[in-house]
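I had to read the description of the data format several times before I understood it. In essence, backbone conformation is discretised, so a fold becomes a row of integers matching the chain in length. I therefore recommend that a typical entry be quoted early in the introduction. For illustration, here is how one protein appears when written out as sequence plus structure tokens.

***
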Amino acid sequence: MSRDRHPLFMPLILVGGLIFGFGLGFSQMARPEVVLNFLQFEDFGLLFVMFGAAIVSGVAFALMPRLRDSAPLTGDRYERRLKPFDRNVLIGGAIFGVGWGLSGICPGAAYASLGVGNVSILWALAGMFVGAYLQGVWRSKRAAADAAPAGAD
């Protein structure tokens, strides 16, 4: 993996994030009540947003490796990164789903919601940060415990 990034890499990341946030705000997905209405099967507008994103992503993932050997800004090769489907994926997905259902918002939309003036979303953001921190602590303790018996020989 190459670390020689193009000088426009970070500014383009910022622009991409702004476009993403604008899209979330424009589609009303930065409003927790809209997401909660979707989760309660009252408003299916979120499906159109998700299908639109899936189509754009699918086309990009299918076409870019055929058009270029590597990413233009990072030089990294296009390749599939297979990740195992294990207990951590199930637990993480369940926690994410419960948090999404309770707060009515996912992490990306939470920042966009803050940007449109929803200050009470800070509680959900704080919960996300605390959860991520606790998961990191738990994972590092688990890795240390797994490594200790192997190094005891």
User: Anything to note?
Assistant: DSSP finds six helices and no strands in the chain.
